[in-house]
Amino acid sequence: MNRLEIESLNTEELESLIRRIIREELARNKNQSEFEYLTVNEASQYLKTSTRTIRSYIDKGNFKVIRKEGIVRILRGELDRFMMAEGTYTD
Q1: Residue 55, class by beta-carbon neighbours within 10 Å (0-12 exposed, 13-18 middle, 19+ buried)?
Q2: In a shared domain, residues 49 and 70
Q3: What is the pTM (predicted TM-score) of this model?
Q4: What pLDDT digit, counting tens, does each position of 46-56 carry?
């Protein structure tokens, strides 16, 4: 849709267009596993290593984590970036 077409929309049509675009973007982001949070156990399964190794990586600051109510969460994208930097990433 070009600028002229957008300018010709009435308020209802414009709101509908905006809602559709937002839904599409949310769906696209939801499907991007890079933004998925993993527990330490899930991260160890993902990297095929022990939870002790994951906790060691966390202690060394190899990737950022989020701590909430005593639970550590790690972005899958952080794990991927770390493994790529280590040269051990396999997709």
Answers
A1: middle
A2: yes
A3: 0.58
A4: 889 999 999 99
